[in-house]
Design a protein that fits this description.
heterotrimer; A mainly alpha (about 280); B mainly alpha (about 260); C alpha+beta (about 350); A: about 280 residues; mainly alpha; globular; C: alpha+beta; 6-stranded mixed sheet; 9 helices
Chain lengths: ~280, ~260, ~350
């Protein structure tokens, strides 16, 4: 290989090796370190693992986080689908382009500020309850509930899910849809047995991204969900920031990575599987 | 006409989804000009008080300076790394290309909180945490994939004979890169630089963990939000939004419009 | 050949396990217009790219003006190529495209501009000098690509099917431009094409390649009238090819025995090639003529090719002028009789 090619290939390997693989690898190693007198010591002990895996609150967090991220994924998928369907099939290409551009905007607004906005909107004396109050309803408690958490998760993920679903649906070969209609398939049946299977890969990938983002988010469950119970990311923050228990935080992080890896592998397998077993 | 009704329902639903997505953004801009400390309906009076306080706040000024340094440096490094990988992917075939590409493309699939912990631990282990450039390093890793994706898309549009034509007309590989590949990619390079700068400007989780005392704007927001209800957040958020949108619109003008045309 | 400009000796090019070019030997003279022709995948473009240095031979040598070029990098060769895609730089205007090679050679701005304009005018596109190449027509782009390659006054110009994307009437015009330039400049043109009309119309010599090997080299008329083997007979022109056994002064085939010259010793296998335009056709039976029935016809304007079938199933082709068709009053299944003069047959000794 000549020097020219190396100049383009090597730096990235070194850089990502040092600052991407390095940190992740070190984190795994660190989960076996010990902390004494607020100082981390190199060791190879299973103590952190033993401690974290035997604590009930860790498992409570684990299942709660999994459940909340899973619910958010389900809700986001169902809420986004009709919108994506409308964008893919019921508007002009021009409108679709603009809509997608609009959907990109939220990525460049601070997620923290948007969450803070929801906090103010959803609060007991906030905009929604004040509005409902004038017509004699409420007030409803929306903050510090799972509902608040899901609203936060959707704030983070919904634009991306709509975009990915729209792209998946818009890329469907329209001839196949028309062929189905021509063969006597009713519109609802066409949707279920032709459109959804054709867009399957994109729909699953969208859901997977939604899950990954929700699973790793600490802002929504903390500010809108009231951290009752704390999710895994909140657990990582608390463990890291107070008491310098980085190795224990690393245990939680590795648990999250393994979970995500298993879910991503399953999702990708489902997304790209050729035949649908029936 | 059941088709008409279905279309109406779908478009109505689409509108609701957009309302949900944009409600917090619009609300935050409105609240930033609202006199109430805790905004509700009916709204209080118009004020620029919250903007005045943030402009008077030295800590926020310092954070803004830090944010600008971090996002500009990140965009330079990430765009360079992204270009090198995109070009390698475009031009060469080699063994282990899959792992090579995964190395640069995977970071966005790892939750930020995990990257934050891993970066904090590793950088402090090698004695590189708590600095402004700690954030720059971390952000470059996180944003390089986006630069890579944009540049790769652009290189996908190039006539593969173009570079060879330059060699054939007497350019060395370096010269051809400078006189053919770079000019061809220029809109995408500007676009990638804007995009990576915007992402870096907004990122708070990793920055919060590795920054130590060198806070960026999003980290300040995080700290304010953790304290009381303070509409300063809305004012800062609106300004950050303005900055990021400027970058995105620039990116759009330089790149997305071109892709659309080609 | 005395002092050839380009010599390829024993050149082999492998891509992984696939061999694109097998032991190629070829000499190209100074000032010659040579066409390399063959079906796609025959190795013609790979051969051209090896001359340009865009591919490195796996074995053998490429010499230009006596110098071994194998390790000379592309940009130091001065072997400009006119690309099939034209490969005009989209971010430069027409004049800047033409200036590119001069810029790489460090020619100063004023001189560069003068020489570029000179070439643009020579190719009748001076008026478009400042236009973006995206706004030019196919023919104009072609001329910009040509000017860009010739502006450095090379000894050799390589052409990789540059005319393939043009409309038919423009192809003829560009063929005229190319032959005129080549005569005026007196430099070597190596033109790769799969179009026999281009090769036959322009080249001094034609190299026919098949599956990575040269199968015949010759002047256009030689290639057309006396194909060296069955592949060339099938690829060039429109020929009837009959396998048979030599009887000394005649060849015995499934359709009958025909007198022919140049046959091998009696009893040896041989092949008789009769060009479709030399076959005579009539409706009335004639002595020694082969009775056939019409299967289909291909109408390309001034000439029409009729496809017929003999009693034993052998397919035969006849090319007739379109105006002669009226007399034949043809329709599918019509019966005809075919024959050809004894000197129309060309004998291949290989089978």
């Amino acid at each position: 290989m000549n020097r020219f090619a190396l100049v383009f290939r090597l730096p990235i390997i070194v850089w990502q090796g040092l600052f991407f693989l390095g940190p992740l690898f070190f984190m795994i190693v660190m989960s076996f370190f010990l902390v004494k007198n607020y100082r981390m010591e190199e060791a190879f002990e299973l103590k952190n693992w033993a401690r974290m895996l035997t604590r009930g609150y860790v498992w409570d967090s684990y299942w709660y986080t999994l459940g909340m991220a899973g619910s958010a994924t389900l809700v986001a998928t169902l809420v986004a689908f009709p919108a994506a369907y409308a964008l893919a099939f019921r508007v002009s290409a021009e409108v679709r382009r603009w809509a997608i551009f609009l959907l990109i905007i939220p990525f460049f607004t601070s997620y923290l500020v948007r969450t803070f906005s929801w906090y103010v909107i959803l609060a007991g004396s906030g905009v929604i309850n004040a509005g409902l109050g004038t017509v004699g309803f409420g007030p409803y408690t929306m903050l510090n509930t799972p509902f608040g958490t899901v609203v936060g998760y959707l704030t983070l993920t919904l634009p991306l899910v709509v975009i990915l679903q729209t792209v998946a649906l818009a890329n469907i070969d329209q001839n196949l849809v028309q062929a189905a209609r021509n063969l006597g398939c009713s519109p609802p049946r066409t949707l279920i047995s032709v459109v959804v299977p054709l867009a399957k890969t994109g729909l699953i990938i969208a859901a997977l991204f939604c899950f990954i983002l929700s699973f790793g988010d600490f802002v929504a469950p903390y500010y809108l969900g009231g951290s009752k119970p704390p999710t895994l990311p909140i657990l990582i923050i608390d463990t890291t920031k107070s008491g310098q228990q980085w190795p224990r935080a690393a245990v939680v992080a590795v648990m999250m990575m393994l979970t995500l890896f298993a879910i991503a592998a399953t999702a990708i397998w489902l997304a790209y599987r050729r035949r649908i077993a029936s | 006409m059941s088709g008409r009704i279905a279309t109406g329902l779908l478009l109505g639903w689409l509108l609701l989804v957009f309302v949900f997505i944009f409600a917090p953004i619009v609300a935050s801009v409105i609240f930033s000009f609202n006199s109430d400390r805790f905004p509700t309906i009916p709204l209080g009076s118009f004020t620029t008080h919250w903007y005045d306080t943030i402009f008077a706040d030295a800590e926020i000024g310092e954070a803004a300076r830090n944010s600008i340094i971090v996002s500009l440096s990140t965009s330079v490094i990430a765009t360079t790394l992204g270009f090198a990988t995109a070009y390698t992917d475009y031009r060469y075939r080699f063994r282990f290309k899959g792992p090579y590409l995964a190395l640069i493309l995977l970071p966005p699939t790892i939750p930020l909180i995990i990257m934050a912990l891993a970066m904090l631990a590793w950088l402090s282990w090698i004695g590189a945490s708590g600095q402004l450039w700690s954030i720059i390093i971390a952000h470059s890793v996180l944003t390089a994939p986006f630069a890579m994706a944009i540049l790769r898309l652009r290189l996908h549009q190039i006539d593969p004979d173009l570079e060879a034509a330059a060699w054939n007309l007497g350019s060395s590989e370096w010269r051809a890169l400078r006189s053919v590949i770079l000019p061809f990619c220029r809109p995408a390079i500007i676009s990638a630089a804007c995009l990576t700068a915007a992402i870096s400007f907004d990122e708070f989780a990793v920055a919060w963990f590795v920054s130590g005392l060198n806070k960026t704007v999003p980290v300040i927001i995080l700290e304010i939000v953790q304290g009381n209800i303070d509409p300063q957040v809305n004012a800062i958020g609106s300004l950050v939004f303005l900055t990021s949108m400027t970058l995105v619109v620039l990116a759009q003008l330089f790149f997305i419009a071109r892709v659309g045309r080609a | 050949m005395k002092d050839p400009l380009v010599v390829l000796s024993g050149v082999v090019k492998r891509f992984g396990t696939f061999t694109a070019v097998h032991r190629l030997d070829l000499e190209i003279a100074q000032g010659e217009f040579i066409a390399i022709m063959g079906p796609s995948g025959c190795g013609k473009t790979t051969t051209l790219r090896m001359i340009a240095g865009l591919e490195t031979p796996s074995e053998g040598e490429v010499r230009i003006s006596g110098q071994v070029m194998n390790d000379v990098p592309v940009h130091e060769r001065d072997t400009p190529l006119v690309w099939q895609s034209l490969a005009l730089f989209p971010f430069l205007n027409a004049r800047e495209n033409v200036e590119f090679g001069l810029r790489m050679r460090g020619v100063d701005t004023v001189e560069r501009r003068r020489r570029a304009m000179e070439w643009l005018e020579r190719l009748d596109i001076g008026a478009f000098a400042e236009r973006s190449v995206d706004t030019l027509s196919g023919g104009q782009r072609q001329r910009v690509a040509l000017a860009r390659s010739l502006v450095t006054e090379p000894r050799i110009l390589l052409l990789d099917e540059p005319l393939s994307a043009l409309d038919a009437h423009l192809v003829i015009r560009m063929q005229g431009v190319l032959t005129r330039l080549q005569r005026e400049l007196g430099i070597t043109f190596v033109h790769v094409t799969h179009s026999q009309s281009e090769a036959l119309a322009m080249a001094d010599r034609i190299v026919i390649m098949s599956e990575g090997r040269v199968v015949q080299i010759g002047r256009p008329r030689e290639i057309y009238r006396t194909p060296g083997n069955r592949f060339v007979a099938e690829f060039v022109g429109r020929n009837n090819i009959l396998s048979g056994i030599s009887r000394g002064d005649a060849i015995e085939t499934a359709l009958g025995t025909f007198p022919a010259a140049g046959l091998p010793a009696p009893g040896r296998p041989a092949t008789l090639v009769i060009a479709a335009d030399l076959v005579e056709i009539s409706q009335a039976p004639r002595d020694g003529a082969i009775p056939c029935s019409l299967i289909s016809e291909e109408f390309v304007g001034a000439t029409v090719t009729l496809f017929l079938e003999a009693a034993d199933g052998t397919e035969l082709k006849v090319q007739v002028p379109e105006r002669a068709l009226g007399e034949l009053n043809q329709h599918a299944g019509s019966r005809y009789h075919l024959s050809w003069p004894a000197d129309a047959g060309h004998v291949l000794t290989e089978t």
